[in-house]
Write a structure and sequence with these properties.
The complex is a heterodimer of chains A (346) and B (847). Chain A is mainly alpha-helical and 346 residues long. Chain A has helices spanning 17-24, 37-52, 54-61, 68-73, 76-91, 99-138, 195-203, 213-247, 252-258, 266-289, 297-322, 333-336; strands at residues 31-32, 145-151, 164-170. In chain B, a hairpin with a 5-residue loop joins strand 2 (152-154) and strand 3 (160-162).
Chain lengths: 346, 847
């Protein structure tokens, strides 16, 4: 027999949160979702909430249904807490300092805090710098989400209800095992089985009305996934670094003097937003043009180099991604398999 | 192309025996048994293995990882990478991004220490990310449970993965039964339970999962805090290391002076000058050419020296203001006329009639003898051109008297001849002054090249010398002197043993800091042992500072001081060259008349270092004087010459209070105005007793502070000024101080400082109190020297010190406690992990 992963049933493990989850389950099978702002926000909030509540609770209890998805989702926790802690490290002691020290410490502390925020913002936004042109040029949405119905192991022998959980993945999350099945259309709804593959095939010049567009498209789909992943891995962190560099420009000091998050104080809040915009523009200008008074050539041009590198990594990444090398051979199929070489066809 | 599907081939039927390779068979593998019980259809045997690296394998592991990442990048660029490779590349991207941040901030920071800490911060952050789970999760879990929760394994494709990465797919087969059982024993799992291996596995999985979750929950707090604490701890050793490196770098500049000088390529200037001279050889020296030459010579040169050179060059290169006339000038004159009429609507024909051609101008000028020769005044030339133009306008007017432009032409003629702006030459006037009558001769060119060589050599040499003096003594963070200051200041204030409450209070305000410092010093001064210990610390600090700065002691002979000798040689060599060329102003600016000018560029090279040293030394000598004064007052030693038996006690008390306050918080302005103190104009003149000092070192004032009314500044009491000065600087230092300073060799220097302070600060002339002098005549000194002699006020030093200490300790306390709490929670949690109940009849809980 094929051995189960575990035949031990811990009777002590039970989660009340499962019942809550049961109410939320709206998928009975793996379902492709639309990649729009609403869906992304809903998925993001769902994952964020569970990363701070359900998954840590399951993990700390040693639940047998805890899996790699939950572990990865919990990766948001150190990101968020780490960002807040990093801000705190540079700011929270300042209030105890004497006024002069406080002012000086706040100058650096505020920039550090802003740097942490801009790191996250630039990192997230910059992924679109790759995703959007790639989608526009190849028709392949590398971020297409789907809801996965996950079948759980029993917590105890009597537990037959609610043995599912919902996970949110992306079709191209794994380049080794993309969820090709999610891209097929549903004939019951009147859709062509290959309609998504057809569109991609047409967009990439593979032709129309193909018999097996899915087979033709899969290699290039995978190629785009790998290459765009590479582009994002490098460019997003370089953009994040540019965000930090931007936060360290002098014009932000104007903003810190008026910064407020008290939105209920309309006038002050709007003024704060206005100065934020102005400081952003001035800082971007200073980052690119450098401190002209500086004697160091490197200091004058370092911002330009950093932003230029980030931009170059994005452009090169996108060009490499859309430069497809795995397109099916248009030669006569008879010539594809060489009659002179041994071939085993299953 | 060969494709095959192993499982499919077996489904078709049993494999033929000739395809069975016995050599590759797994030991005890019975193919018929496997096929019979249908378990054959399963993944091929794993080639994976657990990674058990020791610390010595780290270098080879790093190399292997780098090669793997390079391969991964190559595969990903071609669109052929797998998930694992892409995951690794994401980590590489993160490190690259962080390195980019550190590199950018590196360029924005000004000092080596702050620059270096950008990379240290980067390093500690990633170190903290790696070390936190290893030290506070993996290690305690292993010590408590015997389970390595961060075990890694290499899969069949050689990919390194975490063993417990995905709890739904743990490759348990990589652990042998023996290993699992051993871990089970360590976990106190009974040996007689059914499915013991699986029970142990489940327990291991549970511990690992709980620890992985704990890692995720704590890493966000731990990484930044741990990184910041590591940076905090590294600050002192790194500072010391950098200080040593900088000192060595500075010393190397002097020991390898000729080689260091060669690194600065000012020859480029000489080549450029040579080209200018070649292109203009034999040509008139125009103001533009003169400026180009002087710009080349004085580029990046000290202002004083370049001024001297320029003064000499004006004599060497005669720009006598005389100009020649030639065809070129004539065209310029025509152009100037044409330009003046450009705004008037004239036909081309009219314009040709109006604007004189070259021949007409030559004829007109020749008729007055104004064409050939050197001219400095062109007013006659202007008149000639004016007449010429007036005649032509008249002719035009005669041809067409109704022409409306005639008036405009006459008006524009005035504009052309006379300047629009007061004092400036007219355009016509300017067009004459193009060709200087002075010519660039070969002799001049040779002289200029010689000057250029001397100047370029001096520029290179002074660049090295200035770099040395900057590294050693500049008023900037992280220079040799700044590092010494920090070191000594820290040791001295540490020796005073301020309590956290005192530091907390003292950092708020300079006045409060002064009060706290005064109380502390008075207490130390009242205790002979404590005072001896304190002076010893000060003495040690000052001795070490003196040793460190011995290389820049400008009082030394040049044979013993390499900086001094290099400055001497460099400036003298340049001066010799200028002397040979008869450039006295340049010589004077370099070394002064007879090499004795205190304001020469050479003297300033020494002065800069001397001033910096004096300022630093005075600050610590002042603190020592302060302690010595308090000790003398506390013990009643060496104060009797000032506080003699004929001085009323009330004045004694006023005098001591003022001396103590001045030493603590006085500035040069207090000495300049000869002090200002509200005193009793009618002191008690019956009580001549000595002052009394309590056990706490404070004076028990009988009168001072107890006479609230009628206090005024007694501006005419010059003897009082002298008494205060004498009490501070003239009375001999306390024998206890002498004992401590004798062995260090600082005694004479300290005495000299006090004498100098007495004479200079006490001899400063102030118009409102002109007789308030410690001597008979005023002592002439600069305000800068008096400022340096005063040094930093001790209360201000204390205020800054309190702030620094408080800020560092506060931060360390906040985040140190957070870090400690985090460690306690993380390690403590281990004791609650992995708890499971035994199956069936084994009801006892296994901990």
């Amino acid at each position: 027999m094929i051995s189960p992963i575990s035949n031990y049933n811990g009777k002590t493990l039970s989660f009340g949160s499962d019942k809550k989850e049961e109410k939320n389950v709206s998928y009975t099978r793996d379902t492709l979702l639309k990649n729009n702002f609403v869906t992304r926000t809903r998925i993001g909030l769902d994952k964020l909430t569970k990363a701070f509540t359900l998954y840590p609770a399951k993990g700390l209890a040693g639940n047998k249904n805890s899996n790699f998805y939950e572990f990865l989702t919990m990766g948001n926790v150190p990101y968020i807490i780490g960002s807040l802690t990093l801000m705190s490290v540079f700011n929270s002691a300042n209030k105890h300092f004497s006024p002069f020290s406080r002012v000086n410490a706040a100058k650096i502390g505020n920039k550090m805090a802003l740097g942490v925020i801009l790191y996250g913002v630039f990192k997230s936004v910059s992924k679109s710098f790759v995703n959007l042109p790639v989608k526009w040029l190849t028709g392949i949405d590398t971020e297409l989400p789907y809801a996965k119905v996950n079948y759980l192991l029993q917590e105890n022998p009597e537990d037959y209800n609610n043995l599912t959980s919902i996970e949110y993945h992306k079709v191209g999350e794994s380049v080794d095992f993309p969820r090709w099945d999610q891209l097929y259309g549903n004939p019951q709804k009147g859709e062509s089985v290959n309609w998504r593959y057809d569109k991609i095939a047409q967009k990439n010049g593979l032709g129309q009305n193909l018999n097996d567009s899915d087979q033709e498209v899969k290699p290039i789909y995978k190629e785009v996934l790998v290459k765009s992943n590479l582009a994002k891995s490098f460019s997003s962190f370089l953009w994040a670094a540019t965000g930090v560099a931007l936060a360290f420009q002098k014009p932000w000091e104007d903003y810190f003097k008026v910064a407020t998050f008290k939105f209920w104080k309309g006038k002050e809040f709007l003024h704060s937003l206005k100065i934020f915009g102005e400081s952003f523009v001035k800082s971007a200008y200073e980052l690119i043009n450098g401190d002209k008074k500086s004697l160091s050539k490197l200091e004058r041009h370092s911002g330009k180099i950093l932003a230029g590198t980030a931009l170059a990594s994005t452009v090169i990444g996108v060009i490499n991604t859309v430069h497809l090398t795995k397109k099916p051979n248009k030669q006569n199929p008879k010539k594809v398999i060489s009659p002179k070489k041994e071939s085993v066809v299953c | 192309m060969r494709t095959s599907n192993l499982i499919q081939s077996y489904i078709q039927g049993y494999p033929s025996s000739d395809r069975y390779n016995a050599d590759k068979a797994v030991k005890d593998f019975d193919v018929n048994k496997e096929l019979a019980n249908r378990t054959f259809i399963k993944p091929l045997p794993s080639n994976g293995k657990l990674i058990r690296n020791s610390i010595f394998d780290i270098p080879s592991q790093i190399r292997k990882d780098i090669l793997y990442d390079c391969d991964a990048f190559r595969h990903a660029a071609k669109g052929e990478a797998n998930d694992h490779e892409l995951g690794r590349l994401n980590d590489v991207g993160m490190k690259l991004g962080s390195l980019a941040i550190a590199s950018y901030l590196f360029t924005k920071k000004q000092t080596p220490m702050t620059k270096l800490f950008e990379f240290i911060g980067f390093g500690t952050f990633f170190a903290a990310m790696d070390l936190w789970p290893k030290l506070f999760i993996q290690l305690p879990a292993y010590l408590i449970h015997g389970v390595n929760v961060r075990q890694q394994y290499e899969d069949s494709f050689g990919r390194k993965k975490m063993f417990y990465q995905d709890h739904q797919f743990i490759p348990w087969d990589l652990y042998s039964d023996k290993e699992i059982n051993k871990i089970g024993d360590r976990l106190h799992v009974p040996k007689d339970i059914p499915n013991r291996r699986e029970f142990i596995q489940e327990k291991m999985r549970k511990i690992a999962l709980q620890n992985n979750t704990l890692w995720m929950l704590t890493a966000g707090f731990a990484t930044p805090v741990m990184s910041a604490l590591m940076c905090n701890i590294l600050e002192e050793p790194v500072s010391k290391y950098l200080s040593k490196v900088k000192s060595q770098k500075a010393d190397k500049l002097m020991s390898g002076f000729p080689d260091e000088v060669k690194k600065y390529k000012f020859e480029e200037n000489k080549r450029a000058l040579q080209q200018i001279l070649n292109e203009n050889a034999g040509k008139p020296i125009t103001p533009e050419l003169y400026e180009t030459i002087t710009m080349n010579l004085t580029d990046e040169l000290d202002y004083m020296i370049s001024n001297g050179i320029l003064k000499d060059l004006r004599n060497k290169i005669p720009l006598d203001g005389k100009y020649n006339l030639s065809e070129t000038n004539l065209s310029d004159i025509s152009d100037a006329v044409r330009k003046a009429y450009s705004g008037i609507n004239l036909s081309e024909e009219e314009l040709t009639k109006l604007v004189p051609d070259n021949q007409a101008i030559i004829d007109a000028l020749n008729s007055r003898g104004l064409f050939n020769g050197d001219f400095s005044d062109f007013s006659e030339h202007s008149k000639v051109i004016q007449n010429l133009l007036e005649n032509r306008i008249e002719e035009l007017s005669k041809e067409n008297p109704d022409n409306p432009v005639i008036k405009k032409l006459k008006f524009n003629l005035k504009q052309l001849i006379h300047s629009k702006e007061f004092g400036a030459d007219s355009e016509l006037f300017q067009s004459f002054k193009h060709i200087s009558s002075s010519v660039l001769t070969d002799d001049m060119a040779r002289m200029l090249i010689k000057i250029s060589e001397a100047v370029n050599k001096l520029k290179a040499e002074t660049t090295v010398l200035e770099e040395y003096s900057f590294l050693k003594a500049a008023q900037a963070p992280e220079t040799g002197l700044a590092d010494s200051w920090n070191e000594v200041e820290k040791d001295i204030f540490k020796a005073m043993k301020f309590t956290p409450e005192e530091i907390k209070k003292g950092r708020l305000d300079r006045e409060l800091a002064g009060e706290i410092l005064r109380s502390k010093l008075e207490a130390i001064a009242a205790d002979k042992t404590a005072y001896a210990e304190f002076v010893e610390v000060v003495q040690k600090g000052l001795s070490s500072m003196h040793d460190g700065m011995s290389r820049i002691d400008m009082t030394q002979d040049a044979t013993k001081n390499s900086y001094k000798s290099h400055v001497d040689e460099s400036f003298k060599a340049a001066a010799e060259v200028f002397k040979s060329l008869g450039m006295e102003n340049a010589v004077d600016s370099l070394i002064g008349f007879g090499d004795k000018n205190a304001t020469s560029a050479k003297a300033l090279m020494f002065e800069f270092i001397e001033d910096r040293k004096l300022g630093v030394k005075s600050s610590f000598y002042r603190l020592l004087s302060l302690a010595d004064l308090y000790h003398r007052v506390a013990t009643g030693t060496n104060i009797s010459e000032t506080l003699h038996s004929k001085m009323p006690r009330e004045i004694k008390e006023e005098c001591v209070e003022l001396a103590k306050s001045l030493m603590l918080e006085g500035h040069t302005s207090d000495f300049a105005v000869k002090f200002w103190q509200r005193r009793n104009p009618e002191p008690n003149r019956d009580d001549f007793s000595d002052i009394e000092v309590g056990a706490d070192g404070k004076v028990k004032n009988k009168y001072y502070g107890n006479v609230p009314e009628h206090k005024v500044e007694l501006a005419n009491d010059r003897e009082y000024f002298k008494s205060v000065m004498k009490l501070m600087y003239k009375e001999d230092i306390h024998p206890d101080t002498v004992v401590r300073l004798t062995n260090s060799g600082l005694l004479d220097d300290f005495r000299n400082y006090r004498t100098q302070a007495f004479e200079v600060l006490g001899g400063d002339e102030y118009f409102a109190k002109s007789h308030h002098l410690v001597g008979f005549a005023p002592n002439k000194s600069t305000s800068l020297f008096r400022f340096l002699l005063m040094g930093a006020a001790s209360d201000e030093m204390a205020y800054k010190h309190f702030n620094n200490v408080f800020n560092s300790k506060k931060w360390f306390s906040m985040f140190g406690k957070l870090g400690a709490a985090l460690v306690a929670v993380t390690v403590g949690a281990q004791f609650f992990f992995g708890r499971m109940k035994l199956p069936k009849n084994h009801t006892q809980e296994v901990k």
